[in-house]
Design brief:
The complex is a heterodimer.
Chain A lengths: L1 H30 L6 H7 L10 H5 L3 H9 L9 H6 L9 H4 L22 H5 E2 L2 E4 L3 E3 L2 E5 L14 H10 L5 H5 L2 E4 L7 H4 L3 E4 L13 E7 L3 E8 L15 E10 L2 E10 L12 E7 L6 E9 L7 E9 L1
Parallel strand pairs in A: 2-4
Antiparallel strand pairs in A: 1-2, 3-4, 5-6, 7-8, 8-11, 9-10, 9-12, 12-13
Chain B lengths: L1 H14 L31 H22 L2 H19 L11 H12 L3 H31 L7 E3 L6 E3 H20 L3 H23 L5 H8 L1 H15 L5 H38 L1
Antiparallel strand pairs in B: 1-2
Helix pairs in contact in B: 1-2, 1-5, 2-3, 3-4, 4-5, 6-7, 7-8, 7-9, 9-10
The chains are: A alpha+beta, B mainly alpha.
């Protein structure tokens, strides 16, 4: 009985030491990693990660972020058919800096010569000044990560999305690019078994770089009839940049107006609302369109459809019938 | 003496890139396929241009250093020039005969005497080899590799929403423009107004077309900017009025024709026509 009690005490003691040890390591890694001597960290550094690794290498630990990125347009910046066609088989020099950036720092990136198929991947955004950077100071045994506040600011995106950045800035809206296109949720930065439990949950941005869906709540339609004219106004009410927006791509909103006399279509009109035609809808400002009526008209059907830069497909934003 | 030295350096820089060989006529033959591998998309950056710059820099380097009496660097540039010249002579086999290695070596030897007059005299033979090639091939190379190919551009016709070859699209624009003019001339103002709507839509689509090559937004405003937009609105106003003003109508048509169509054609059409001819000769 006495022996059993001793064994139990030993197990409990070892267990407590183990738990304390794990708790201490957890505390050390997440809160006080500066206490760990650099010499010790050097032993566990992964040299490949310290020299511009391919995305697949990053995915060994950051599986979720990698899978999100794979779904994004950034991951196909060099390989998408639309890009290959629009850039005349990637020969247009103006396209290269932002489709295969070396680093997205500065006024405009320089195109890189390696790993071009990966488009805009982990390294151009996170490997700056020869060190891994992100929104947090972190201890990760394979590589240190240094906090840089730029990761939560819009100007980080502005080196490529220059035009959109300027449009957003002019709106004076506080929500940043990341707030809408990289919404954050609490999760672990690494999914590598074992290591994941040693890292506490953080706010992690969505690396699919969400492309917002345009709805009738975003673009507000108003109409007004006159004897010989039909007037329309559109207002981008919610999106704090022009809609659509692009520096060099050609996304479009198509507005179709069909005029009917009874059930017979007597005339039609169309507007192409596109950044490259300088007709995109600015934030919170009404844009007016006026149509002359050549024939008697009893109603009009106004349809708005959206076609992103990388697709030939259009999706409906709204369709509204306006009677006279 | 120093004055003549300075003068010679200046003249060398002006003359060397061209050393134009007088030619009363020019035949624009498509450059040989073997040069393709030194230009995008096969090569990024343009290795041929880099090679030209290397030779030009070493040639300039010889005279700059002769003037500065930095003779070690004169010798280095002279040797590098011969090295790059030989390398270039092997890059496009079809152009091998333009090169005269002996002339390059003579120039290098003359430069190494550190006598600027001797170097100047020897540069003539070398310069002529460059000048002959430039005179016969430079325009073709610029036309082929430095200007994007209009014939590869596809435009989404705003009326049909179909992707259209650039040349066909230009035909559609021209046709819409003529429909406006013809109907106006016949006093069919409603028809002219409808055709104008179509023309405006097609013409403004060109803003997207310009963006396919140009990054600078201001460039497209030369041809499809506010001035043209205003002229189109003025035309629309005239055609919507009970009695359109003929003088105002033609004034705006003239403005669109000159500032929209002609100015763009002046800049872009020559190159486009050269490429078109090459394409047609390939088809034949």
């Amino acid at each position: 009985m006495k022996n059993f009690s001793r064994v139990l005490d030993l197990i409990i003691g070892v267990g407590l030491i183990g738990i304390s040890g794990i708790a201490f390591v957890y505390f050390l890694i997440n809160e006080r990693f500066e206490w760990i001597p650099e010499v010790a960290l050097e032993l566990v550094r992964d040299q490949e990660i310290l020299k511009r690794p391919p995305a697949k290498k990053c995915s060994e630990c950051h599986k979720n972020i990698y899978e999100d990125w794979k779904e994004s347009r950034h991951s196909v910046a060099w390989t998408s058919e639309t890009f290959i066609e629009a850039s005349e088989n990637r020969s247009k020099e103006k396209c290269l800096p932002c489709h295969i950036p070396q680093s997205i720092q500065g006024e405009k990136p320089e195109p890189r010569t390696d790993l071009r198929d990966q488009g805009i991947y982990c390294v151009p955004c996170h490997f700056i000044d020869n060190k891994m950077q992100g929104p947090y100071d972190l201890l990760a045994p394979p590589h240190p990560t240094f906090r840089n506040p730029i990761y939560v600011r819009s100007n980080f995106c502005g080196s490529c999305h220059q035009k959109t950045f300027k449009e957003w800035k002019a709106t004076q809206v506080e929500d940043t690019c990341q707030d809408c296109h990289m919404p954050r949720k609490k999760s672990r930065l690494t999914q590598k078994k074992g290591l994941n439990l040693l890292h506490k949950k953080r706010w992690v941005g969505d690396h699919r770089f969400l492309h917002g869906k345009i709805t009738k709540e975003d673009v507000i339609l108003e109409t007004r009839w006159e004897t010989k004219f039909f007037n329309i106004s559109l207002k981008n009410q919610t999106i704090p940049h022009f809609v659509p927006t692009a520096d060099n791509g050609d996304p479009r909103l198509y507005m179709y107006i069909k005029f009917f006399n009874g059930t017979e279509e007597v005339d039609n009109a169309k507007e192409i609302i596109a950044p490259q035609q300088e007709t995109a809808l600015p934030y919170n400002k009404k844009i007016n369109y006026r149509y002359r009526l050549f024939d008697p008209v009893s109603k009009a059907v106004v349809e708005l459809k959206y076609q992103p830069a990388w697709s030939k497909e259009k999706t409906e934003v709204f369709s509204k019938t306006v009677t006279r | 003496m120093k004055f003549f030295g300075n003068l010679f350096v200046v003249i060398s820089f002006i003359v060397f890139p061209a050393f134009q060989v007088g030619a009363g006529e020019m035949i624009l033959k498509e450059p040989p396929k073997s040069i393709n591998k030194y230009y995008p998309p096969e090569s990024q950056p343009s290795k041929w241009i880099q090679q030209m710059h290397k030779m030009s820099t070493h040639f300039g380097g010889v005279f700059i250093n002769l003037k500065e009496e930095d003779f070690d660097n004169v010798d280095k540039h002279a040797d590098k020039l011969v090295e790059e010249y030989k390398k270039t002579s092997e890059m496009v086999p079809e152009w091998e005969d333009y090169f005269d290695i002996k002339a390059a070596e003579n120039f290098a030897n003359a430069a190494k005497t550190h006598d600027i007059a001797k170097a100047g005299k020897a540069s003539g033979g070398l310069g002529k080899t460059c000048g002959k090639c430039h005179a016969e091939q430079q325009v073709s190379v610029w036309a082929k590799f430095h200007w994007p190919n209009f014939h590869k551009i596809k435009v989404t016709d705003p009326i049909s929403e179909k992707e259209t070859a650039f040349d066909d699209y230009m035909g559609s624009i021209s046709s819409s423009f003529k429909t406006v003019i013809v109907n106006f001339g016949e006093g069919q103002y409603d028809r002219a107004a409808k055709a104008l709507k179509m023309f405006k839509s097609r013409f403004m689509e060109l803003k997207s077309t310009c963006s396919k090559c140009h990054i600078n937004q201001d460039v497209k405003r030369f041809y499809v900017g506010p001035e043209i937009d205003n002229a189109l609105n003025e035309l629309n106003k005239e055609l919507s009025s009970k009695k359109p003003n003929t003088r105002k109508f033609w004034k705006n048509i003239d403005l669109i024709g000159k500032k929209g169509c002609k100015h763009c054609h002046l800049v872009h059409r020559t190159n486009s026509l050269i490429k078109e001819m090459w394409q047609q000769s390939v088809k034949k």
